[in-house]
Amino acid sequence: MVLVGGGHTHALVLRLLGERPQAWSGAEVVVVSDVLLAPYSGMLPGYVAGIYTHEAIHIDLENLCRFARARLICQAVVGIDVEANRVLLANGDVLSFDYASVNIGSSPMTDAVPGVDRWAVPVKPVAAFLRRWDALMAAVNSGAMPKDVVIVGGGAGGVEVALAMEKRLSGGCRVHLVHRDRQVLSGHPARAQRLARALLEKRGIVLHLGEDVVNVNEDSVVCASGKSVPSSTTFWVTQVAPAPWVRESGVATDESGFIRVDNRLCSVSHPLLFAAGDVATVEGHPRPKAGVFAVRQAKPLFANIGAALRGDALRSYRPQKAFLSLISTATGSALASRRWLAWKSPLMWRWKDWIDRRFMRQFACSGESQDVSDS
Ligand SMILES: Cc1cc2nc3c(=O)[nH]c(=O)nc-3n(C[C@H](O)[C@H](O)[C@H](O)COP(=O)(O)OP(=O)(O)OC[C@H]3O[C@@H](n4cnc5c(N)ncnc54)[C@H](O)[C@@H]3O)c2cc1C
Question: Whole-structure pTM over 0.90, yes or no?
């Protein structure tokens, strides 16, 4: 059984496996992850805001795999040969599988706009983003405050990152938020959009709404309207896409390249392949790409992999329709939004903080020895 990627779903699956090893009895479990410390993006803006430490927002995959008695290989997967049932690693190694599951998340699209690859800092992969953010903070701490920082993308992630950055960079740096739509938080209730906009404006964040970025330069972001926004560093928090190798592997994908799975989390084209989290699109249940769905898929994925390994029938899973979005203001409050409801309050922040810390506490487990290799 090969688990590709240590996303939220696989992390929870490993936790369950450690608790109930008999559920996958007899299976050799191999986890392939490009990082040993898997980031929890729900707490990422809190790290940017200086609320959480690096350790607090990462899941220790070595520890978790030890607990689950799984072998961990620290390598990027660069392809899956779905006809020969093989996972292809960046170092050239090949892993054969009876079953595999993909949970590698997604990243902001960077190839559609010239200059993004060269000059912008995408929020994912998180490790690369954190390196750039830590370097920026080191420069700030030694007195080199940037003049203008631009965040492109005004969805929940972009708004939260902008508020977090404003908190850390206040006093000399202008924080800009550029968003394609006329309102931030597209797809959220109108009240949430109004509350978020008022908050961003109150914090002095310069909003560029209804602006489509068409070019990113070293020192500016250029919009389709002709507007040029000065930028010392541009952060890219836009719509997400899966890794290109997913589509190239020949597995059935939707038009954006996400793996099409049925309601048992099996690929619709290759039933030995499971997929969960952002990288998967559940047929008949389109949902926004949010960690909450990745988390909820852990139990059905764990059960269905166990059933597949035993040769039993797989069970259907029905994703929830609505979910609560909690956006931290970075200053001790949070904006909650669900369906048509929206509410900003310090209570919401305390709730978000409690939910996130409780999520991470599940991985503070230890266990028996395990085989970790980097090849
Ligand atoms: C700033 C920000 C804040 C967010 N806040 C929230 C929130 O509060 N609530 C919410 O529901 N959603 C939130 N999201 C969305 C959330 O990040 C994603 O929906 C969620 O992370 C998806 O989880 P996942 O398990 O699919 O993958 P991920 O959590 O992205 O994990 C994928 C893992 O696979 C690894 N990996 C990637 N490629 C490879 C490869 N080729 N080979 C091996 N390993 C690989 C990665 O290193 C990573 O560890 C936020 C997003 C951002 C950007």
Answer: yes
